[in-house]
Amino acid sequence: GLERGAKNQFSTFSNFITTINQKKEGIGNRNSPTQLVIPNIKNVRDLPPICLDVRQKQRISIDTLPQELKAPIPPEPSLPIRTKTVKDFQDDVENAKSSGDWKAVHDFYSTTFDSFLEINAAFKKDTNSPFNTIEDSGINAKFVNVVYDALLNTPQDVQKSVLKGIINGLLQEWKGPRTKDDLRAYCILLQNPQFSNTSTYVIYAHLLRQIAALTEADHHFLVHWSKKISQKRFKQLVDRLLQFISLRLFPAKPEEFPPMVKCTWWIPSASKVLALFNAANSLNSPSIISYTDFYNSTLDHIDLMEEYHNWQCYGNSHRFSFCQYPFIISIAAKKVIIQRDSEQQMISIARQSLVDKVSRRQKPDMNMLFLNVKVRRTHLVSDSLDELARKRADLKKKLKVTFVGEAGLDMGGLTKEWFLLLIRQIFHPDYGMFTYHKDSHCHWFSSFKCDNYSEFRLVGALMGLAVYNSITLDIRFPPCCYKKLLSPPIVPCDHNTLVGICDVTLDDLFQIMPELAHGLSELLSYEGNVEEDFYSTFQVFQEEFGVIKSYNLKPNGDKIPVTNQNRKEYVQLYVDFLLNKSIYKQFAAFYYGFHSVCASYALLLLRPEEVEILVCGSPELDMSALQRSTQYEGYQKTDLTIRYFWDVVLGFSLDLQKKLLHFATGSDRVPVGGMADLNFKISKSETSTNWLPVAHTCFNQLCLPPYKNKKELKQKLIIGISNAEGFGLE
């Protein structure tokens, strides 16, 4: 978008202003446009504060407004009559291309973009209708798209006339609230493809500033109107805003822009407008584009901890931080924030332990700086539960695991295996804590009642420790679980406040129990008499240890029949019962376990999907990417043994590839940053080729003897990775 072809080159902003002030657009005899007044770019005022503080639950609150706002609607001024149609415009463009006479096209562009009234006169579907609702913006989207698609292929004077008109519109003095015509004009101007060019960024910045400073009620309309933009155009708008932020942070040619100190409002304005599009995307079901399309990878290269610190310290003030707009920050950047926040907490806790020890005149011990977990393989769950319960005050220290009776030293590998074995045992169906649903390939909490929910707290703590210690786990929870885990993202001070309760829908149930969800969906669409044909009440039944128990979905539910009129309520209450109420104690224990380790404001930055990626990593293995990023010690990547190795590995089944990854790294999941983040290394083992490969999971290192042929390498490698449990030193 930054390449400048012959037809879309612009001079610098100041040169452009000089040109349009001095030069008459010499195509025929026309009255010169209104004299252009240019703001003093070096003395622009700071934008009024527009930051949204996520700690106040205001990531974007526009969707919570009523659909029809009762604020007085200012009267719309009468619009000029413009009769040009899409066909007329296209004919004018074709004639101009063939004849070289662009007068008609130039007249259209210079008139249309000269003011907000003219923009509405050209692009409003019906100039006599107010279009004051959120359902319909009244914009002729097809005409807007055709006009903008043709713009970059017109002569320079045509393109400059559009920019000149936009400046005139932006400099208009506003008296009173904006009209819906003004909002329509903003919506149309945002789609101008000229704003992809850095030479137009000063104009673009002023447009963004005005949109950012609109009232919340006006933003409400813009959000809902933006939902109607096509996916392709919507993504172009988002990409343009992200590019604007990136190039303001790291300009390729700094001389193109005013000094940063004079335009501190540029990035806050763009972020606020981007938040409007993020809100529109979130309100749409399914979303228009992926939430990852809002990530700005440029932010990976700024001082993220300073941003996080500013947000923590000044979150309720007017000081800008990208953390106020977490949807812009990539999952890789959020992982860095969480890791460093965790490290700072670890150091702080360890330092406090050291100070306490010295103050009591006791000899310091290095072990006091770690969370030391000693377990027996034969009593893995009970030992782990006892250790974590006994050392609850040490959960935020660096984790070290020792298997009793084994000589392995934990440099990371033992910790990985402890997580893997513990998760495997806890989630086994015979253990009864979780139910595995074959249709959805995921686990869900067992609704069986018990006297002690401490083991659910252990699982939550395990997930927290995994995030805290940057370990990926092979846990298959549905997305709904992570939504509940962030409800709320910060543990409430009042212990009577319900936790782990979130709004759930039939879509959430489909991801866990698709067959049951399908049945409820059929009930909602049933065209017959629900009460007579189904004979159901607001009562549900569950089997617990062979005993059928009944539960009322509402008071006296067993006496209330399900009818065509109340079936939506029945379905909603049933879904809420299954995903919230029936497992409340189990999930509350799980929630408190997770947050006992991961309590951090950094969780406010995360979406449920991002928590899942941090906990589980990605199950998608790309062994070719691993090959490209692998380092070698004692081998060259062209050596015969290495070529044999990759021929064998790339030909493995997915199951064997996962076993290899688990053998070498202690986990069969891919971390957030992809295979490159594993820092995988293959070292030459000088032992006999009769030996099997050896792995140092602490360092993600595979020690490979120089096997003589591919068949021998494959045989020894499969034996090694298929029998890889336990640690020992000879």
UniProtKB/TrEMBL annotation:
Its EC number is 2.3.2.26. CDD domains: HECTc. Keywords: Ligase, Phosphoprotein, Transferase, Ubl conjugation pathway. Pathway: Protein modification; protein ubiquitination. One of its GO terms (molecular function) is ubiquitin protein ligase activity. The keyword Transmembrane does not apply. The keyword Cell wall biogenesis/degradation does not apply. The active site is at 698 (glycyl thioester intermediate). Residues 391-730 form the HECT domain. InterPro entries: E3A/B/C-like, HECT_dom, Hect_E3_ubiquitin_ligase. One of its GO terms (biological process) is protein polyubiquitination. Transmembrane segments: none annotated. Pfam families: HECT (PF00632). It catalyses: S-ubiquitinyl-[E2 ubiquitin-conjugating enzyme]-L-cysteine + [acceptor protein]-L-lysine = [E2 ubiquitin-conjugating enzyme]-L-cysteine + N(6)-ubiquitinyl-[acceptor protein]-L-lysine. E3 ubiquitin-protein ligase which accepts ubiquitin from an E2 ubiquitin-conjugating enzyme in the form of a thioester and then directly transfers the ubiquitin to targeted substrates. This is Probable E3 ubiquitin-protein ligase HECTD2. The lineage of its organism: Eukaryota, Metazoa, Chordata, Craniata, Vertebrata. The gene is Hectd2.
